[in-house]
Amino acid sequence: DPAYSDFKLARLQFGGALANANNRHWITDRKPLLEAARQIALDQDEDGSWKIEADSSPGSPVTYGNALATIKAASILRVAEASAFEVNIKKAAAWLRDVPLENIPTAASVAMWFGQSEPYGDSKTAGPALDYLRQAQSTTTGGWGPYPGSPAESFDTSLAVMAMDFFPDDRDAS
After folding, report:
1. How far is CA 104 from CA 55, 62, 63, 64, in A?
2. How many helices, marked H, and strands, marked E, lie in the chain?
3. 24 in helix, strand or coil?
4. 3-state secondary structure of 79
5. What does the pLDDT look like over 13-66, one tens digit per residue?
6. Are 143 and 116 in contact (CB under 8 A)?
7. Separation of alpha carbons 162 and 174, rounded Å
8. CA 9, CA 131: separation in Å to the nearest integer?
9. Vertex 77, ends 127 and 174: CA angle to 5°?
10. Spatial contact of 133 and 142, defined as CB atoms under 8 Å apart
11. 150 by DSSP, 3-state: which?
12. Inter-residue contact 49 to 92 (CB < 8 Å)
């Protein structure tokens, strides 16, 4: 049913599976990964993001949200062939550098992107996102909801924990 289909998200999910299989050496033919990356690159918006949501909503395990979709897409392009998709990856990084930190998935996505190793890593840029995550953590449950002050949810908590895992000693990132 086209009303319930999101081909952009489906390409991200399939491309992500191919990238993971490539990283684990489960596939030897890279042609499907390169074709998936080519299609994913075509879905990039002019501003450098991959828009999954029409607004700045945080997303969910089903829809990702724009920031998480953007880091997933750029990561797939990097695994497929970073040099061939360098322009796309740089545009994504620029969008992530400037995206407003309005919710936990966005802050976690920004921290994860800039927390990775060179040449895309930039721990100083991750600092505000990490600060946002620290301040938004629930003092009663220890978890995170989609927005600061909202009840903790598994998806948002897992994203925040994954983001912070990039910074085991995050004193240098703030």
Report:
1. 15, 16, 15, 12
2. 7, 0
3. coil
4. helix
5. 999 999 999 999 999 999 999 999 999 999 999 999 999 877 767 776 667 889
6. no
7. 17
8. 29
9. 5
10. no
11. coil
12. yes
